[in-house]
Amino acid sequence: MGHVFVRLAGHGLRLVPYWPYRFARAAGPSLVEVAVGSWEGERRAVIGPGSASVPDVVDVTEGTVTGDWRLEVGPFTLCWPDGFDVQSPHDPADHTPCYLIASDQAMIFPQGPTPLERLAAPDALVAPGQRIVDRRLLGEDIDVVELAYEHDGAPWWQAHWVIPVGGQQALIFTGQAPVEESGLLRVAGDRMAVTLC
Question: Tell me: the pLDDT tens digits for 113-171?
Fold first, then answer.
């Protein structure tokens, strides 16, 4: 097991978990439960202001973010929306930085950065069997594409938030859920996109 490239920063701390990990909100706005899985079982720690590192679970250092918890994904930071746990992929071959999980089936995950020219075609983000149900602009430059499709005979919703970063690249957040859970994901994805810096 080793360190990962996603960190959590807030309340004057920076948390770097070991892989595979899960961050969940604990009782109190400044507390985080960190869980790390292994062949021997899961190890947990509750971390908050004044906490120290917990061997083989999480390294805790002083951080520069004094407010609410934010995710640090590569060079980017963004809010950690309420109602979501953050977890690493379980497969070492999965290069997705992290998954934000709201239920067994509802999730958001970051991708990229991706060259903008790969996203230029109107249907670049539409997979076979999907159809565009909405396309909107969030803020001045965040393109949001919402899609409908069927999965195992049930109606599903998917959205892509395309956020320009640098001159010719975009970071993409993809959210997917059964239609009845789409409202939670839409609000969380919009908030994550506008707080990216």
Answer: 999 888 877 788 999 999 999 999 999 999 999 999 999 999 999 999 999 998 899 99
Q: Pick from 70, 49, 48, 54: which is nearest to 17 by CA?
A: 54
Alpha helices in the chain (DSSP H): 182-195
Residue 114 DSSP code: E
Mean pLDDT, range 87-103, rounded to an integer: 90
Whole-prediction pTM: 0.92
Asked whether the beta carbons of 27 and 34 are under 8 A apart, the reply is no
The C-alpha atoms of residue 116 and residue 38 are separated, in whole angstroms, by 39
Distances (CA, A) of 149 to 37, 68, 101, 136: 33, 35, 20, 19
Buried b (16+ CB within 10 A) or exposed e, 85-123: bbbbbeeeeeeebbbbbbeeebbbbbebbeeeeebeeee
